[in-house]
Amino acid sequence: MTDVGIAVGRVLFVMLFVLNLGGLLTWVERKQSAIMQDRIGANRASILGLRLWGLFHPLADAIKMLTKEEFYPARADRVLFGLAPFVSVFCALVAFASIPFGDTLAVAGREVPLQALTFNVGLLYVFAMLSLGVYGVMMAGWSSANNYALLGGQRAAALMITAEVAIGASIVGVVMVYGSLNMMDIVRAQGAVLGGWLPKWGILTQPLAFVLFLTAGIAATKRIPFDMPEGESEIIGYFVEYSGMKFGLFVMADLLETVVIAGMTVSLFLGGWQVPYLARDGFALPWGAAVALPRGLVTLLQVLAFMAKVAAMIWVLMLIRWTLPRFRYDQAMRLGWLGLFPLSIANIVLTGGALLLWGPR
Amino acid sequence: MKPVQRVYLREVASGLVLTARHFFANMGRHLAHALGRTEARGAVTIQYPEERRPYAPRLRSLHRLVRREDGSPRCVACMMCETVCPAHCIYIVAGEHPNPDIEKVCTEFTIDLGKCVFCGYCVEACPEDAIRMDTGILEFSSYSRGGMIYTKEMLLSLEPAGPDGKPRSPVPIPADRAP
């Protein structure tokens, strides 16, 4: 019974965290872009005169989306057309499951890892779910019976293969350094300190992989600068024929993927839930001082650190999204296959050489 | 393209620094504003229906008919404006004035704003300074063509804009939009 409760608690925490963050991101996106562009941003939605900097706009959006007409094109494949947005959102949502948001927590005499799904190949799982998301997009493109939608779906498939190859190859370096495919083990290994004072975060041990992963990760979210599947000024893309909440779900899926990419980047390169010098029983500062903290407080600090890092990473992703223009289709392909992929292979070779020279035997 | 530009990284980084600088500068001003320093503005936005950008005094806005001391219209129905109007949007019907010094007066003076091109020729042509375009009112939309037709009474009731260009009379609500 307690086992079931703990499992439900873990899953619910992650699901609500990701879902709410995804909904909130529509607000973050509007406000952050507005502030970057010297504007104010949406601020008119109000409940009883209360505006709260436009925080009610996601709510207003949801009500609008739900009450709009759900349009099915006459020649569309009705089953696939209806299923596509759900596949997209589902894959984006479950991808977060094996990203750890804290160390273990002692509940009812058990050591519970703070992670929805404890998995020895957690890294591959996130990766697989992220790739599966493109099936929703391709289904949408094909079932719409619209040439532009089909073109968008094809572009999405091509982009996803390009991005996934680069992501996969750039992750290998991280796996080599930390010696595990389990996300929890990777984050735990990043708690070590290099040379007595430098946290052994992925961004320090694998700087090239960080840049490559971030670039390919943004491509995997299908957002600007890699939004050729959508390309609102050329082809409207795979969701041309969608309206109402189904369209909203596609937008939601992109935002959820942003959360997943942010979570993955944080876990692999920015130390996950690690707070620098914070061990299980308190701070152990590099100059020898130590501050003992109770176990619960340490866990709380770790979870908060993870959330803060994810928020910061999302901020960076939004900054990139609102700064760069869209790559042309061939430019993105060239960048993926002639830039990111060879560089990640080179990174694997370099990492292998470095590990051979200085690594553990 | 130089090779260093072809690598993208430096250019992307410089772009991100630019937008991030805007973000933090504006965010700082927004915070200062929230903390009471009201002169700090983090955005160039003018929140339109509540706030207005000051209009130039030469702006040609909604027409109004000027009154005499006794409140009757200055218009003497000379038909100059109706003649000069390139859009043929002014309709005047002349009538007798009780004062024998005044030859004629307009009994009807109608402007079809759906046709008006806001050239201001009517104001230029008028020998009596009876029509002006200085109300500062720009919002006179309507759901029907009939709602765009402004009669003599509506035009006479309008006031000139204040010195800052803000309209002093309420925006006339056409009949088809009556609440």
Summing up helix and strand content along with how strands pair, one would put the structural category of chain A as mainly alpha
Strand content of chain B: 5-15%
Number of strands of chain B: 5
Helix count of chain B equals 5
Mean pLDDT of chain B: 86
What does this structure look like?
The complex is a heterodimer of chains A (361) and B (179). A 3-stranded antiparallel sheet of chain A has the order 5-6-7, with no helix packed on it. In chain A, strands 1-2 form a two-stranded antiparallel ribbon. Chain A contains 11 helices and 7 strands. Chain A is globular. Chain A is mostly helical. In chain A, α8 runs antiparallel to α9. Chain B is an alpha+beta fold and 179 residues long. Chain B has 2 domains: 32 residues; 111 residues, 2-Layer Sandwich (Alpha-Beta Plaits), CATH 3.30.70. Chain B has a 3-stranded antiparallel sheet with strand order 2-3-5. Chain B has a two-stranded antiparallel ribbon with strand order 1-4. The model of chain B has no long low-confidence stretch (mean pLDDT 86).
Can you describe this structure in just a few lines?
Chain A is mostly helical. Helices cover 62% and strands 6% of the residues of chain A.
